[in-house]
Design a protein that fits this description.
Largest sheet: none
Number of strands: 0
Structural class: mainly alpha
Shape: elongated
Order of helices and strands: HHHHH
Length: about 130
C-alpha cells in the first residue's frame, strides 16, 4: 500500500499549516526561545564578566543600548520559555489534552507570555 503523506516539505509549507493552530505555534516558539537562550548564554557571560571587572566596565555595559537590548531579548526568551514550559508540564500531567482546552491553554499562555515580555522590556530598558 502506497503512503500518500508528503515526505519533503519546505519550511514555508510547514509554517503555513501550523500558523493556523495556536497550540503548534506556542510549541514551535517554545523551541525557538530555548534555542535563543542557548545561543545567548555565552554573550551574557561575557557581559557579566565585563560588568563585574570594574566600575567603568559596569558603566560601559549598561550605558550601551544595544547590550541592554540583548539582555532584554534574553530575559524575554526566558519568560516565554518559562510560561510555555509550565503549559507543557500541565499537559504532561493530563490537563488540556483535548483540542478546545488545548487551544484555550495555548491562548492563555501566549497572553501571559506577552505580558511577561512587555514587563521585562520596561524593566530592562528603563
Amino acid at each position: 500500500m502506497k503512503n500518500k503523506r508528503p515526505i519533503n516539505l519546505s519550511v514555508g509549507q510547514i509554517l503555513s499549516v501550523n500558523a493556523k493552530s495556536p497550540i503548534a505555534m506556542a510549541s514551535i516558539l517554545h523551541r525557538v526561545s530555548g534555542l535563543l537562550l542557548f545561543v545567548l548564554i555565552p554573550v551574557l557571560l561575557f557581559v557579566l564578566q565585563t560588568s563585574l571587572s570594574s566600575p567603568e566596565g559596569f558603566a560601559s555595559i549598561f550605558d550601551n543600548m544595544f547590550i541592554r537590548f540583548i539582555v532584554w531579548v534574553f530575559v524575554a526568551a526566558t519568560g516565554y520559555h518559562f510560561v510555555m514550559g509550565v503549559k507543557h508540564l500541565l499537559a504532561d500531567l493530563g490537563m488540556n489534552e483535548e483540542l478546545e482546552s488545548g487551544r484555550r491553554a495555548a491562548w492563555i499562555s501566549i497572553v501571559l507570555a506577552v505580558i511577561v515580555i512587555l514587563a521585562s522590556f520596561v524593566w530592562v530598558m528603563f
